[in-house]
Amino acid sequence: MRKLPLCAILFAIVFWSAASPVVAQKNRDPKVDQAVDKALDYLSREQKRQGYWEANGGQYRVAMTALATTAMLAEGSTTMRGRYADNISNSVDFLLDCAQPNGLIGYADDYRYTYGHGFSMLCLSQVFGEEEDADRRERIREVLTKAVEFCANAQTSQGGWGYVSAKDGNDFDEGSTCVTQVQGLRACRNAGIPVDKQIIERAHKYIENCMTPEGGIQYSIKRAGGARPPITAAAIASLFSAGEYEGEMVKAMLEYCSKNVWPGGGGLNTNFGHWHYAHYYYAQVMYRQGDEEWEKYIKAIGGQILRTQAADGSWKEGHVGPVYTTAINATILQLDKGYLPIYQR
To answer: What's the CA gap between 68 and 254, in Å, rounded?
Structure first.
């Protein structure tokens, strides 16, 4: 049995004594907790022996693994403690093994590898502060440090990111992958990994340049089009993660989402384009708005989520697959547990 350093043991005691009351103080609906348990048990069963999850057709292994792991971390488990410790330990090792010499967490032949890279930065940064094994903690630090460097090198001339790096993608960028990188970078910085502030500042400028007159965020600077509710919700969440809660840009985006995400058009309609993606991010925004706004939001959206859960604990809407939808819904339903720093108020 591996011996833990004294500092790790002390950290674990402090972490668990500090984190547990967060959950105890919340008056959570037992039906929500039952739904979360069923969802996480489903994910546990779906994890492959090598530690990963995948979407339909065996796609997006890195992104699905990061999202599913984050959902389990939100329950309070870590790599060494809790109900899903074995699952998390195996998945973290898988993500670490996916780290390439150039810093990419993923595979170069994945035509949308920046999603997996961004979600992995967020996931591993949440593990980093709680990791009790000194060797694995150091490995996480090394992987995240190089991941940040890769992110900086992958940024386009406009300050955004595309589905692949600027070099691999002919300098193409778009909003959804951009906000994934921004939130991942912020999570790394919060965990103590050095991040050049100019990288995030350029990304924020990119988001600002993608804003339409009505306050929404369009798909891409190069392919303008109209505002996209899911990307706008994601953009606000990324700004909130960076501590930006005020300003005309944030105000305009919040107003746009109040009309187009919730409680405005499409809020309770699962046919709303990229509904789960939109609410994965918008739930973070509403949680940071305070208890009153959160309780109204989660009563409506949480009710919709609970009504559509399958008997096996999964959610099967959307074309990506049940692992994706289940991980997102489970994370939404656990935001108020307060375990993960990136989602805290």
So the answer is: 28
Give the integer Cα–Cα distance in Å for 185 and 239: 12
Please count the structural domains in the chain. Answer: 1
* CA separation for the pair 341, 168 (Å, rounded): 32
Contacts of 125 (CB under 8 A, 6+ apart): 144, 184, 187, 188, 190, 191, 193, 342
- Whether 16 is in a domain gets the answer no
SS3 assignment, position 119: helix
Q: 96: domain range?
A: 32-343
In 3D, which of 239, 210, 206, 252 has the Cα closest to residue 227? 210
Question: What's the pTM value of the predicted model, to 2 decimals?
Answer: 0.91
In a domain, 12, yes or no: no
Calculate the dihedral angle through the C-alpha atoms of 71, 77, 79, 85, rounding to the nearest 10 degrees. Answer: -100
Distance, first Cα to last Cα, the chain? 38
Q: Which residues of the chain, if any, have pLDDT below 50?
A: 1-25
84/42 Cα distance (integer angstroms): 12
pLDDT value, residue 242: 81
Cβ atoms within 10 Å of 227's Cβ, excluding its own? 21
Q: Residue 129 is part of a domain; what is its CATH number?
A: 1.50.10.20
Give residue 23's pLDDT: 44
